[in-house]
From TrEMBL, chain A:
The pyruvate dehydrogenase complex catalyzes the overall conversion of pyruvate to acetyl-CoA and CO2. The pyruvate dehydrogenase complex catalyzes the overall conversion of pyruvate to acetyl-CoA and CO(2). It contains multiple copies of three enzymatic components: pyruvate dehydrogenase (E1), dihydrolipoamide acetyltransferase (E2) and lipoamide dehydrogenase (E3). SMART domains: Transket_pyr (SM00861). Residues 2-78 form the Lipoyl-binding domain. Residues 90-100, 118-132 have a biased composition (Basic and acidic residues). Keywords: Lipoyl, Oxidoreductase, Pyruvate, Thiamine pyrophosphate. The keyword Transmembrane does not apply. It catalyses: N(6)-[(R)-lipoyl]-L-lysyl-[protein] + pyruvate + H(+) = N(6)-[(R)-S(8)-acetyldihydrolipoyl]-L-lysyl-[protein] + CO2. InterPro entries: Biotin_lipoyl (IPR000089), PDHB_mito-type (IPR027110), Single_hybrid_motif (IPR011053), THDP-binding (IPR029061), Transketo_C/PFOR_II (IPR009014), Transketolase-like_Pyr-bd (IPR005475), Transketolase_C (IPR033248). Its EC number is 1.2.4.1. This is Pyruvate dehydrogenase E1 component subunit beta. Its cofactor is (R)-lipoate; thiamine diphosphate. GO terms for molecular function: pyruvate dehydrogenase (acetyl-transferring) activity.
UniProtKB/TrEMBL annotation, chain B:
This is Pyruvate dehydrogenase E1 component subunit alpha. Heterodimer of an alpha and a beta chain. The keyword Nucleotide-binding does not apply. Gene3D superfamilies: 3.40.50.970.
Length: 483, 350
């Protein structure tokens, strides 16, 4: 029997990859556990192992082919005791199969049940058994895909770049400009970053300035904070902010309070950065948005960008900042491409929101990945004759109240969109500001659209149900417009 | 049973001396001038702290106030070996003595205790949160053990900048059981950071004696599994402490990485001003004062050095005046202006 070997999904959000290298050739006998190929995902180069024993009868995708969709048949294997058939006639290039497969109806059926992702389901169905993992995270990414970035906060030429590359470039540029800047964290150097954000930095800057730590968050957050007190400019990477809970004492008690309790004598210019918020199917301890926690602390700057341009411009500003900064990235957005200004030294001001989409009927306020949902919802709302304005807060502390209130004066209606819990959230804060300082401008109560108020579940259907959805944003926007 | 402070037994050899260790420290041979200076500094700390205790009783100092009385030889012996402005010092909340031993003006320290605008932190830090970046004195930290990681970061910055400085990071026998201490030990040795970890073992973590809290109560051994050599020192003898400081500095300045000193010492007062100290007997405290007091102990070396009673009296008088002046300054300085409430939260404007 011939076994089709399919492009595997090597990460929860992987859609496609590159066949970096074949380690077998046609006619080779392989057994379970043999490494067949090296496959490059957006995060790393992974080895692809054989599961079955047999003889490779054909390699269908040439080495070096980019953009091979998950599920594409990349090779065939004849099982032992069977006549190896002649190599199949097949194109030696990546070509996802798009015939409607037997199980596609079922998958499509599922998709239909998700109102928010009908038009944005990014993957064409394939007949593959290699199914992409089901996850609500994909709906968030799809919304970002559909929503785009909105208006970029700059004139002039731009280039397409992933958020990951934008962050890396920001660090590299600041490290070139200032010898005091260094990066410290788990797997930031030799591994090139657990999420590849620090890729290439070790090669350029050496081990003095790109420093791998043991798994010791409390300790290295303290070392970074102490180094900042001693006059350096550390960038402390947390593999994710979930792990920063081990270190939150240094972020708050040591870094945030130092300037105040020293009467302005002792600075702590440090950036704590890393992915924050829900990822894909990683459940309760690895899926949490800490933005409201840090944004409640005087003495900290808290930044949570959505687009690559903002990621770059604001990370550069954060590194130059004399105050301690918590810089919250989003894993689901790392591989996402946006337009980034090519202007030399693109730096954005901290504490200024961005009007990602101007509109007049209702204001959708959000930050981080929620902005994608808001922009996607705004497109749907436009089809129904509702002109939504989308505000990307970008900096959560200090919060740009002026931009929020000015938009409210214009639209008189507001929905806050947040990938996080509702209670004591950024949404709560924005609502309080509107009550306090914008009450007379309100034509309807402000609504918040957030995740469900439960720990993040693992099961795919529960996870989807727990996450904030575009459909809910649309519904809330209509509700505040009384439509 | 609480263990009493005694002149330290000679430090036991480590279990497996298969790696380089610093030589055993020798009691420091102080000059006449140095003896007088140690006396002056220890007395300043003692009288300052006694005065702080009085001001606390009068309601002029609020909150927590942790006095250093009894432990003076540690700060003076160690910091006299450092270079102010080059070597950094960081400590926990019992920080007044360490500041005085680094030459920081008693007036601004006392004014910080009374919460006045002229205090070293403009009255916003208080007893536990005081800093002098000019002296490279980095606080003054209220979270037990935090200063150890922060100190490793200061050591990191010395190495990164190549400024030749060493960080002295103090912590107590209580902090020695915090996890981040060991995270810091690991990184400090891994990266050969120039840092001297100093455990001031005053026998009690608040009300819990060392042997009720520490499975390994010989705290100088706590670095062994990280290959950090440890030395146990009589922290009641300023000359023994200074001798150990010399060894520790040779080691760290020589690029050999961190070293751990355990200073056996004793605090005469409660953990803080609000501690009735019922966990130990008056007799225990009295016995230490009589047998091991660091200031009285130093006086024994005076006769041989030809220091006269008149010289001692002159210093006593000078210190009394300095402390009274600090107390007057701290009482008479105005409180911070209310506008200070909002300043220094952030450095930049956004």
């Amino acid at each position: 029997m011939t076994i089709e070997l399919k492009m595997p999904a090597l990460s929860p959000t992987m859609e496609e990859g590159t066949i970096a290298k074949w380690l077998v050739k046609e006619g080779d006998a392989v057994k379970s556990g043999d490494i067949l190929a090296e496959i490059e995902t957006d995060k790393a180069t992974m080895e692809y192992e054989a599961v079955d024993e047999g003889t490779i009868t054909s390699l269908l995708v040439a080495e070096g082919t980019d953009g091979v969709k998950v599920g594409t048949v990349i090779a065939t294997l004849a099982e032992e005791g069977e006549d190896a058939p002649a190599p199949a006639e097949a194109p030696k290039e990546a070509k996802p199969r798009d015939e409607a497969p037997a199980d596609a109806a079922q998958k499509t059926g599922e998709a239909v049940q998700q109102p928010s992702d009908q038009k944005t389901e990014p993957e064409k169905e394939s007949q593959s058994e290699v199914k992409q993992m089901e996850t609500g995270a994909r709906d968030l990414v799809a919304a970002a895909e559909a929503g785009g970035e909105g208006d970029v906060d700059a004139d002039g030429p731009t280039e397409t770049m992933t958020v990951r590359e934008a962050l890396r470039d920001a660090m590299a540029e600041e490290m070139r400009a200032d010898d005091r800047v260094f990066v410290i964290g788990e797997e930031v150097a030799q591994y090139q970053g657990a999420y590849k954000v620090t890729q290439g930095l070790l090669d350029e800057f050496g081990e003095k300035r790109v420093i791998d730590t043991p798994i010791t968050e409390y300790g290295f957050a303290g070392v970074g904070t102490g180094a900042a007190m001693g006059g350096l400019r550390p960038i402390v990477e947390f593999m994710t902010f979930n792990f920063a809970m081990q270190a939150i004492d240094h972020i708050i008690n040591s870094a945030a309070k130092t300037n105040y309790m020293s009467g302005g004598q002792m600075r702590c210019p440090i950036v704590f950065r890393g992915p924050n918020g829900a990822a894909a199917r990683v459940a309760a301890q690895h899926s949490q948005n800490f933005a409201p926690w840090y944004a409640s602390v005087p003495g900290l700057i808290v930044i949570a960008p959505y687009s690559a341009a903002d990621a770059k411009g604001l990370l550069k500003a954060a590194i130059r900042c004399e105050d301690p900064v918590v810089f919250l990235e989003n894993e689901l957005l790392y591989g996402h491409s946006f337009e980034v200004p090519t202007a030399e030294d693109y730096v954005l001001p901290i504490g200024k929101a961005r009007i990602a989409r101007p509109g007049k009927d209702v204001t959708l306020v959000s930050y981080s990945i929620g902005v994608g949902l808001a922009l996607d919802a705004a497109k749907s709302l436009a089809d129904e004759g509702i002109d939504a304005e989308v505000i990307d807060l970008r900096t959560l502390r200090p919060l740009d109240k002026a931009t929020v209130l000015e938009s409210l004066r214009k639209t008189n209606r507001m929905v806050v969109v947040e990938e996080g819990w509702p209670t004591c959230s950024i949404a709560s804060e924005v609502m309080a500001i509107c009550m306090d300082e914008g009450f007379d401008d309100l034509d309807a109560p402000v609504k918040r659209v957030t995740n469900i108020d439960v720990p993040m579940p693992y099961a795919a259907n529960l996870e989807k149900a727990a996450l904030v959805k575009v459909g809910d944003v649309i519904a809330a926007a209509k509700a505040v417009c009384y439509r | 049973m609480a263990r009493k402070a005694q002149p330290a037994a000679p430090a036991a050899q480590p279990a497996a001396p298969n790696r380089e260790r610093p030589a055993e420290p020798e009691r420091y041979q102080a000059s006449r001038e140095e003896l007088l200076e140690y006396y002056r500094q220890m007395l300043l700390i003692r009288r300052f702290e006694e005065k702080a205790g009085q001001l606390y009783g009068l309601g002029l100092i609020g909150g927590f106030c942790h006095l250093y009385i009894g432990q003076e030889a540690v700060a003076v012996g160690l910091q006299s070996a450092l270079e102010v402005g080059k070597d950094s010092v960081i400590t926990g909340y019992r920080d007044h003595g360490h500041m005085l031993a680094y030459g920081i003006d008693p007036k601004v320290i006392m004014a910080e205790l009374t919460g006045r605008a002229a205090g070293i932190s403009k009255g916003k830090g208080g007893s536990m949160h005081m800093f002098s970046v000019d002296h490279k004195f980095y606080g003054g930290h209220g979270i037990v053990g935090a200063q150890v990681s922060l100190g490793a970061g200061l050591g990191f910055s010395h190495k990164y900048k190549g400024d030749g400085g060493v960080c002295l990071a103090y912590f107590g026998d209580g902090a020695a059981n915090q996890g981040q201490v060991y995270e810091s030990f690991n990184m400090a040795e891994l990266w050969k950071l120039p840092i001297i970890f100093v455990i001031e073992n005053n026998q009690y973590a608040m009300g819990t004696s060392v042997n009720r809290a520490s499975a390994e109560d010989q705290l100088y051994r706590r670095g062994e599994s990280f290959r950090i050599p440890g030395i146990q020192v009589d922290g009641m003898d300023v000359l023994a402490v200074r001798g150990a400081a010399e060894r520790a500095l040779e080691w760290t300045r020589g690029g050999k990485g961190p070293i751990l000193l355990e200073l056996k010492t004793y605090r005469y007062r409660g953990h803080s001003m609000s501690d009735p100290a019922k966990y130990r007997s008056r007799d225990e405290v009295q016995a230490v004062r009589e047998k091991s007091d660091p200031i009285e102990g130093l006086k024994k070396a005076f006769a041989e050095a030809g220091i006269t009673d008149d010289e001692i009296k002159a210093i006593d008088k000078e210190i009394k005046a300095v402390v009274n002046e600090a107390a007057d300054f701290a009482e008479q300085s105005p409180e911070p202006d209310l506008s200070e409430l909002h300043t220094d939260v952030l450095v930049g404007s956004y």
